[in-house]
Specification:
This protein is mostly helical. Helix content is about 55%, strand content about 5%. The chain has nine helices and two strands; from the N terminus they run E-E-H-H-H-H-H-H-H-H-H. The protein has a two-stranded antiparallel ribbon with strand order 1-2. Strand 1 and strand 2 form a beta hairpin. The longest helix has 23 residues. The radius of gyration is 16 Å and the shape is globular. About 40% of the residues are buried.
């Protein structure tokens, strides 16, 4: 669910929804529920600003060195699995802005049946995203982890795992604070 003022790069200088300036970090906005949504839920960034900033920093660090298209695919798939319409809307839009094709965006949810749309490396990342997102169901199977490790060096794999962890956290923030799809406050 990460937001930036410039969605084409992860390293930007922007302003968070709390007004704090960030340098070299992506800025999640819209993590509070009541900003424009009238849900009566907290604005996470205002209610827990230190936690919010730490999560922004974690997210920015996770993206470092990863291909932007892969970042968006991971975020889209986790958001599907978590039923987070807010983040799904945001990341499909970000992917389009970064040049992602409509065909691939439509196939992310059914990537196993449409493997020819995705590289083996992307498929490994999507499988790992599913396993980590659904970790309570069956853990992270050795074969899924091994396939990801075959496509990413240790540093890349660490960043992929961190990105999966951050999007799952952002999904939970958005769902807990009742964020409404299409109300991305980054604009």
């Amino acid at each position: 669910m990460v937001m930036t003022t410039n969605t084409n790069t992860a390293a930007t200088t922007g302003t968070t929804s709390t007004g704090a300036t960030t340098t070299g970090a992506v800025t999640p906005a819209g993590t509070g529920g009541d900003a424009g949504g009238g849900t009566g839920r907290i604005d996470f960034a205002k209610a827990a600003p230190k936690v919010f900033r730490a999560l922004v920093g974690f997210d920015a660090a996770a993206r470092e060195g990863l291909v932007p298209a892969l970042v968006e695919l991971i975020q889209i798939r986790a958001s599907h699995l978590n039923h987070c319409a807010y983040c799904l809307h945001m990341h499909t839009n970000d992917a389009r802005k970064a040049g992602e094709s409509e065909d691939r965006l439509h196939m992310v949810a059914v990537w196993r049946e449409a493997r020819h749309f995705f590289t083996p490396k992307e498929q490994a990342a999507l499988a790992l995203t599913e396993a980590v997102t659904r970790v309570a169901d069956a853990g992270v199977p050795d074969d899924v982890y091994a396939e990801a490790a075959a496509h990413f060096d240790d540093a890349e794999l660490g960043h992929v795992l961190a990105l999966i962890l951050t999007i799952n956290t952002w999904n939970r923030v958005a769902l807990s604070t009742a964020k409404v799809a299409g109300t991305d406050e980054r604009r």
